[in-house]
Design goal:
three-stranded antiparallel β-sheet
Length: about 450
């Protein structure tokens, strides 16, 4: 495996290390991968799409993530974008590594440590924090200002997180500056902690941080929300259609085959509503939570599921009461929260290797993530069935019992598993299938990579 020498730097893929004069330079893994990719493809101007496909192959991030990574690499290498020695910006295309004196050589082992580079002489009265502090303590009026503020926050982490926090204390823009430092700390390996809870203006900082992250990822979150919603709807339609066909073919059933599209429509409607809530919670949690990601995913999905279930519960009760005079014990709020939490837990486990960005596994990894998420939904649905709480199929059976002449009584399904009626075993199996299909569909729609 080769390594690459250029200027005072050595880039070793084997050791996954960048050194300058023998001294290691800290880089987060994706930034190391980006530098290595540009070096390996140095003969080409690499398109941004190819960079995303290679470096961020398992997640979806905004375009600003690449811009931020390039800024960090240039700062690390001491490069100037106006007169680049290492990384050239190719307008409307991407980037190219342009160092002319690069040497590719065999990497035969650990490089001997060299002398540390001489320290830059201190200029009397020079305050290295001041220019960066002035940037993050000023309102950002344009997208370019926001990018400069993110760069300034990274620079302050590199200089010293604790000192930067001390210097912003009491400033009128402290909440904004603290939010920016919190947002940037995951991009700098040596960054310290930036607490929000208990800090002065912590709630304002948290609100600002949410606004910053949502603004940056709003388009991606909206696209994933649509995908998860449609995935839930398609899963509901497929489950309803399969249940209708099975019911029509079951021995002793009076239901015609035409019941399948009816149940498919009911399943699709319920899947769309539930998918909208759970996908919204998962997408928002992924965009907002870089710390405690797994608890955030479970909480976000549970809240989204509860809101969707509660809304559907009220609408169903009002509709059936007004049109048919029926008052049935419909579930919704609690059931949505439980199913959402189960799907969120499965998704959190399936994507636990993602540190930042919106998970987007490919191929077999995508299928595995969908299956694990589906298992989470299935377990949650089984728990509800054990507690005697019906899901969509069970609710349809209750409606059929309350309506004279209905053809969708699910009693024949109970007989398929040896029960005289639609009993606890058949309820549990049906709930298991519903929860699993819903989680599978939401996950497949959510992680789809455009």
């Amino acid at each position: 495996m080769p390594r690459f020498r250029f200027s005072d730097f050595v880039l070793s893929p084997r050791q996954r290390r960048l050194t300058r004069d023998g001294q290691p330079i800290a880089l987060i893994p994706r930034y190391f991968d980006l530098l290595l990719f540009l070096v390996e493809r140095r003969a080409d101007a690499v398109h941004r799409r190819d960079i995303f496909d290679r470096v961020w192959s398992d997640v979806i991030v905004s375009d600003s993530a690449l811009s931020q990574a390039i800024r960090t690499l240039r700062r690390t290498l001491g490069d100037d974008p106006r007169e680049p020695r290492f990384i050239r910006t190719v307008s409307r295309h991407g980037y190219q590594f342009v160092c002319a004196d690069l040497i590719e050589e065999a990497d035969e082992g650990r490089e001997a440590g060299g002398e540390p580079p001489p320290a830059e002489p201190a200029t009397p009265g020079h305050d290295r924090f001041a220019p960066w502090l002035s940037l993050i303590l000023a309102p950002a009026l344009t997208p370019a200002d926001q990018e400069e503020q993110r760069d300034a926050a990274e620079q302050l982490h590199a200089l010293g997180t604790a000192e930067a926090l001390r210097r912003i204390e009491g400033h009128p823009q402290e909440a904004l500056a603290r939010a920016l430092l919190r947002d940037a700390r995951h991009q700098v390996p040596q960054a310290g902690e930036v607490p929000l809870i208990g800090a002065r203006g912590g709630l304002r900082s948290a609100a600002t941080l949410i606004r910053v992250r949502v603004g940056r990822a709003a388009r991606l979150v909206a696209r994933r929300w649509v995908g998860g919603t449609l995935g839930g709807g398609l899963a509901g339609a497929a489950a309803g259609s399969a249940g209708g066909i099975l019911l029509a073919l079951a021995p002793g059933s009076s239901a015609p085959v035409t019941v399948a599209p009816v149940l498919a429509a009911i399943g699709a409607a319920c899947g769309l509503v539930g998918g909208a809530g759970v996908a919204a919670g998962l997408s928002a949690a992924e965009a907002l939570a870089l710390s405690a990601r797994q608890p955030a995913l479970i909480t976000g999905a549970a809240v989204g599921g509860a809101l969707a279930g509660g809304s559907a519960q009220l609408l169903a009760r009002w509709t059936l009461g007004a049109l048919f005079g029926l008052a049935l014990p419909f579930g919704g709020l609690v059931e949505g929260a439980v199913i959402g939490a189960g799907v969120g837990a499965g998704y959190a486990v399936a994507t636990r290797g993602v540190a930042s960005g919106l998970a987007a596994p490919r191929g077999r990894a995508r299928a595995t993530a969908a299956v694990v998420t589906g298992l989470g939904g299935a377990v949650a649905a089984l728990a509800l069935a054990a507690a005697g709480v019906p899901l969509v199929g069970g609710t349809v059976h209750l409606l059929a019992q309350a309506s004279a002449g209905s053809q969708v009584l699910l009693t024949p399904l109970g007989r398929l598993v040896g029960e005289p009626e639609f009993g606890p075993i058949s309820r549990a199996l049906l709930s298991l299938a519903e929860g699993g299909a819903f989680g599978l569909g939401v996950a497949l729609g959510l992680v789809r990579r455009a």
